[in-house]
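Exercise (ungraded).
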Amino acid sequence: EIVLTQSPGTLSLSPGERATLSCRASQSVSSSNLAWYQQIPGQAPRLLIYGASSRATGIPDRFSGSGSGTDFTLTISRLEPEDFAVYYCQQYGSSPYTFGQGTKLEIK
Amino acid sequence: QVQLVQSGAEVKKPGASVKVSCKASGYIFTGYYIHWVRQAPGQGLEWMGWINPNSGDTSYAQKFQGRVTMTRDMSITTAYMELSSLRSDDTAMYYCARSGYFYYMDVWDKGTTVTVSS
């Protein structure tokens, strides 16, 4: 089973700042089969990024993904108030399709 | 529009079973997988398995093998997840979500709360 470790656990930033979230895999994720989701408390997760770097439909271009192998990054270029949420990475290259434990992005 | 709608909240006793439904609309039901993901209170996301509505094939996480059964009824474009031998640590929000051939999940429902308590 591939274990995904996200860092930091909590990130405190202000609107307008840049956010960088990390996701590290215990073994290589095949074909960059990595996705990022946003979850606002009380809501279902929302797909942001798939294939490590492709934005899902309707996702603003301030969200970008990068990485390959075992190291992946989600970057939010300029934080908007609605971006403060919990973010999860997920690998879907090898069953079971595991999630990271999440990074909480909170307003500073 | 593309939509998944799950059944309502459930309260079950330990040892019982629960069956949650997920009705799909707005797209070709047999063209996409349905996944089940759960989230215990205050915790992260846990993938349980998928069903291919076209073939009925399933794939379950080993953790749930023997306790989970995923089925579908194509006539009413609905997928089901049944979890048996419930324990208190099965208390969680259960989500159904859609994926294509690559198993990232692009459409989710709001979830179904399952509470296991004596």
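Further reading is listed at the end of the chapter. For now, observe: Chain A touches chain B at residues 33, 35, 37, 39, 43-47, 50-51, 56-57, 88, 90, 92, 95-102 (CB under 8 Å). The first strand of chain A starts at residue 4 and ends at 7.
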